[in-house]
Design goal:
Mean pLDDT: 86
Largest sheet: 11 strands, mixed
Structural class: alpha+beta
Shape: globular
Strand order of the largest sheet: 2-3-4-5-1-6-8-9-10-11-7
Number of helices: 7
Strand content: 25-35%
Radius of gyration: 22 Å
Helix content: 25-40%
Low-confidence stretches: 22-29, 230-234
Length: 234
């Protein structure tokens, strides 16, 4: 009996230390069943984007990208102020007296970040550009469709694989809101722009199985791949 009590005692100590580790080192995010953590994990599964207009607001308030990401990790979700029923959900998170809005558009890999205030109503930006400030930790985040057209485009660009594309997007990519459509069904369509050397490249992309699925590329000279495709079809 003494041996059993001793084991239970050590088990209780270990369990308690584990809870402390989760709550204080992981900011409760280890408890994925909690509503707030489920929302945060859903946001962190997306690519965080800040529009040009919000970037200006952040600069005026001396808010950095790191502070914004830290607010997501450690802040409190204000469910009463969030739009939970909208097609494009937006959750308000407060940290150190500042409120941020994080969108969760349907079937989109983007979570757009706003600086929240009581007068604003959050919607996905439809004009201009957005900066990528955080990507999910997945080296295989990008998937490129395998067909003759896209293979031709990759060869002309000198892009060897999807990991190289991800590296370029992380380095100098941005989202073109004007040429993206978050309302289209069944999948939102995103247009990502990045540079390969001096060549500007546009990638038409959807979110599929938690991957940035690139459907095709657009760049100067990409029309030749369309011509070759027609010749093969004939």
């Amino acid at each position: 009996m003494e041996s059993l009590l001793r084991r239970l005692k050590f088990y209780g100590i270990g369990f308690g230390l584990g809870l402390v580790f989760i709550f204080f080192f992981f900011q409760n995010r280890g408890c994925s069943w909690l509503p707030g953590n489920r929302v945060k994990n859903a946001i962190l599964d997306r690519v965080l984007v800040v529009s040009d207009n919000v970037k200006v607001e952040m600069g005026n308030l001396n808010i950095t990208n790191d502070q914004l990401i830290e607010a997501l990790n450690t802040g409190d979700i204000l469910f009463s102020e969030s739009d939970k029923e909208e097609k494009t959900k937006c959750y308000i998170i407060e940290s150190e007296g500042v409120k941020y809005g994080f969108t969760l558009p349907v079937e989109s890999f983007v979570s757009e970040v706003f600086l929240a205030n009581q007068e604003s109503k959050f919607r996905v930006t439809k004009k201009g550009f957005g900066e990528f400030i955080r990507f999910p930790m997945d080296d295989n985040l990008v998937y490129i469709d395998t067909n003759k057209l896209v293979e031709c485009q990759q060869q002309l660009l000198g892009l060897e694989n999807a990991k190289e594309v991800l590296t370029l997007i992380q380095k100098n990519g941005r989202i073109n809101f004007s040429e993206s459509d978050f309302s289209i069904e069944p999948k939102a369509e995103h247009l990502i722009e990045f540079y390969k050397g001096e060549q500007q490249v546009k990638a038409n992309t959807i979110w599929y199985k938690n991957k940035l699925d690139i459907l095709n590329f657009e760049f100067s000279g990409s029309d030749s791949c369309e011509v070759n495709k027609l010749k093969v079809a004939q």
